[in-house]
């Protein structure tokens, strides 16, 4: 008798794994690409040693995350820095007067401002990769086997791919003018598969401070 494996629908099981809609968006990103848009001004009173860090995003939580990362990176290089969100709450007006009061309070010699230039997003439904298990049993017939196939099929998930552009400027408190500027761009992919993470804020903070140091705006 010719050897073969018989697969029958009688033994074909399907199990659907369902995830709640409350699963947070996860984010993964690539490092930002930096372009200098304004060279250090010849009149800049560098290096700056006490910087007020401001992020102007619609979300207070995202502002706080980026400011915290930039402050941490500056502190590691020996530069005093304060996050504006550490001096305010969600009800504090985001106005020039508010930030000028912070500069006076902290006696800052520079203000670092990061704000979005734009974001372009596209969405798509993605198929999850199914997993299968096999249970193979012998029969009474020579070289004939019964195979039970169980497929674990996940539902489709939403994927959002975004291209993000940010502008960062540093202002001299003495001259009240921008003395340096960069643009940063990065791609971010969000899915519903994992808990939220914010590594792109870490990457952005590292990149900004790296270029501040490279261009001599903070003490080496």
Task: Give structural notes.
Residues 1-29 have low confidence and may be disordered. Helix 1 (60-76) crosses helix 3. The chain is elongated, with a radius of gyration of 27 Å. The chain is α/β, with parallel strands linked by helices and 220 residues long. It has three helices and ten strands, in the order ββββαβαβββββα. The chain has helices at 60-76, 96-106, 199-214; strands spanning 4-16, 26-29, 33-38, 50-55, 80-83, 110-126, 131-138, 144-153, 157-172, 177-191. It has one domain (27-125, 155-214): Lipoprotein like domain (Double Stranded RNA Binding Domain, 2-Layer Sandwich). Strands 2, 3, 4, 5, 6, 9 and 10 form a seven-stranded mixed β-sheet that branches.
Would you spell out the secondary-structure blueprint of this structure?
Blueprint: E1 4-16, E2 26-29, E3 33-38, E4 50-55, H1 60-76, E5 80-83, H2 96-106, E6 110-126, E7 131-138, E8 144-153, E9 157-172, E10 177-191, H3 199-214
Parallel strand pairs: 1-8, 4-5, 4-6
Antiparallel strand pairs: 2-10, 3-10, 6-9, 7-8, 9-10
Helix pairs in contact: 1-3
């Amino acid at each position: 008798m010719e050897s073969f494996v018989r697969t029958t629908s009688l033994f074909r099981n399907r199990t659907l794994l369902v995830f709640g809609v409350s699963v947070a968006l996860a984010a993964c990103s690539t490092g930002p690409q930096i372009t200098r848009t304004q060279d250090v001004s010849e009149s800049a009173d560098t290096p700056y040693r006490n910087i007020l860090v401001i992020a102007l995003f619609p979300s207070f939580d995202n502002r706080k995350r980026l400011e915290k990362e930039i402050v941490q990176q500056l502190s590691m290089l020996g530069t005093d820095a304060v996050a504006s969100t550490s001096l305010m709450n969600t009800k504090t007006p985001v106005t020039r007067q508010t930030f000028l009061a912070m500069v006076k309070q902290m006696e800052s010699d520079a203000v670092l401002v990061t704000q979005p230039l734009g974001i372009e997003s596209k969405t798509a439904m993605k198929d999850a990769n199914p997993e299968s298990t096999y249970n193979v049993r012998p029969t009474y017939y020579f070289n004939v086997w019964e195979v039970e196939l169980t497929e674990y099929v996940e539902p489709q998930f939403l994927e959002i791919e975004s291209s993000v552009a940010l502008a960062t400027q540093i202002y001299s408190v003495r001259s009240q003018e921008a003395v340096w500027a960069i643009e940063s761009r990065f791609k971010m992919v969000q899915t519903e598969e994992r808990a939220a993470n914010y590594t792109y804020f870490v990457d952005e903070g590292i990149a900004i401070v790296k270029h501040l140091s490279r261009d001599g705006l903070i003490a080496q």
